[in-house]
Amino acid sequence: MKTSSVKELLASEKLLQEVNVKGWVRAFRSNRFIQLNDGSTINSIQCVVDFENTDEALLKRINTGAAVSINGTLVESQGKGQSVEVQVTNVEILGDADPDEVAKTILQPKRHSLELLRQQAHLRVRTNTFSAVMRVRSALSFAVHQYFQQNGFYYVNTPIITGSDAEGAGEMFRVTNFETNKAPLNEEGEVDYSQDFFGKQTNLTVSGQLEAETYAMGLGKVYTFGPTFRAENSNTTRHLAEFWMIEPEVAFNDLDANMDLSEDFIKYVLQYVLDNCKDDLEFLENRLLQEEKTKPQAERSEMSLIEKLRFVVDNNFKRVSYTEAIDILRNCKPNKKKKFQYLIDEWGADLQSEHERYLVEKHFKCPVILFDYPAKIKAFYMRLNEDGKTVRAMDVLFPGIGEMVGGSQREERLDVLKEKMAALDIPEEELWWYLDIRKFGTAVHSGFGLGFERLVLFTTGMSNIRDVIPYPRTPQNAEF
Ligand code: 4AD
Ligand code: MG
């Protein structure tokens, strides 16, 4: 017999059919009611065992965590809370789960802290919260591809191992084949990377942007969606050492078109989830509501999760220049009362997440796109404005998250780019190919990077980035 998923059965209107369903026992009550979940949906299906006619030894093996295959008849449910259930005719135990062992894990059906769930990340996907988050994450990935594919973009796979530092921030993980302490040295006593696997110093990519730019200048509209790595020692709820980034890059787009693209893209993927992940969002909305009850009133959100998503989809993002933002911040209450950790007193200051969050959560109360940042605090590749001191950069800031997107119009003028690189001591030999793009048919082009986990955070209402990726990589932590 064909196996049906729990999702299919719960949606089925064909009552009295014989069915087979396989999954994991979430709970077994009164020697009679199995709550079976197979991951296809947040909901479990109730399977009712005829315990009087079932072998005692078999009943003893129907334990929380066990994998089972159930044959039975789909019937209208007698009890509350579900429309259909399975009247069991046969239970086969596919894989046992010892109750004493289960009691030591998060499979035990009761409330566990998110921290405990992180320590058992291999099991947490069997909880409602994590299965919901991971289904939403999957739907978002699909929506990302769908958006770009429907809009004429090509998917490019930029290299994971690179010889360049795209962001120039020096936060790279080295890739080497040398054995620790046995790296050959050159005459100056420095490690001789010419003898290493690639014949040069290499690292894991921090961004696929530079390579994506070269592809945009041939395919027109491209996007990447892949893992990126940053060795920044930020132990926060917003940073991972390994995260997934989406980077569109478009030839002939200026910064305004780039801002339009980011806004349209984000709205599309959120709408996709609203349309396709209703059950999971409702569950996550409720979870958030419970979590917020433990917080003081002032810290609670005014909107529910789904209201927040709708709000973003339905309203324009506010576009504000860096200079305007600095004026707002300089004169705001927390700055005057010295409540910020980093006080804003002059133009040119780098914005910290406390400032970004003030702007979106307190001042504008909606997503904000900040643009035209001081050149000094942004990467070398951004296009210099006529004023000579700002660049065509943009950051999209989100409530509860801070920076969701970072992007820019790229410097397409060879001479200006060379000057910028020289000023920052970036050797031309390292990026000769990047400079070449400015020699052969250079043109205005723009792009951005969106941190996928930050998008999943916002969409699911979770509060720690470690809880929206299966196996988080953070400082001092690479278990699993
Ligand atoms: O602002 P970033 O550093 O921009 C770039 O890498 C550009 N090269 C992108 C481009 O223009 N193609 O990073 C982009 C986004 C951030 O806005 C943030 O959402 C996310 O990547 N991000 C991180 N997410 C999780 N953990 C980290 N450590 C992150 N660092 C950046
Ligand atoms: Mg950034």
UniProtKB/TrEMBL annotation:
The Aminoacyl-transfer RNA synthetases class-II family profile domain sits at 134-470
What does the entry give for GO biological process? asparaginyl-tRNA aminoacylation
Q: What CDD domains is this protein classified in? A: AsxRS_core, EcAsnRS_like_N
Tell me which PROSITE patterns the record gives: AA_TRNA_LIGASE_II
The chemistry this enzyme catalyses reads: tRNA(Asn) + L-asparagine + ATP = L-asparaginyl-tRNA(Asn) + AMP + diphosphate + H(+)
Instruction: Name the domain of life this protein comes from.
Output: Bacteria
E.C. code: 6.1.1.22
Tell me the first and last residues of the signal peptide.
none
Of the GO CC terms on this record, one is: cytoplasm
> From the Swiss-Prot or TrEMBL record, what is one GO molecular function term?
ATP binding
Where does it reside? Cytoplasm
Per the record, the similarity remark reads: Belongs to the class-II aminoacyl-tRNA synthetase family.
Subunit and partners: Homodimer.
Q: Which NCBIfam families match?
A: asnS, PRK03932.1
Tell me what this protein is called.
Asparagine--tRNA ligase
- Species whose genome carries this gene: Tenacibaculum jejuense
State the organism's lineage: Bacteria, Pseudomonadati, Bacteroidota, Flavobacteriia, Flavobacteriales
Q: Encoded by which gene? A: asnS
